[in-house]
Amino acid sequence: MAQSPKNISALMCELSVALAELSEKMSNLAITLENHYLDSNAPESTATMEAARETIEKARSS
């Protein structure tokens, strides 16, 4: 079943808004987690730091 271009355009607009909201929520979550970590004063292990670096590199290359 084919969708009219007008319906597809409206869906794309909704998707764009939803993705922008998700992006903002993910950013807020990252800030909250970072602040929680900084407040915890927990010493990080070498393995934790390496895992974090690997995750950051994977995210950058995506």
UniProtKB/TrEMBL annotation:
Residues 40-62 are annotated as: Disordered. Residues 51-62 have a biased composition (Basic and acidic residues). This is Uncharacterized protein.
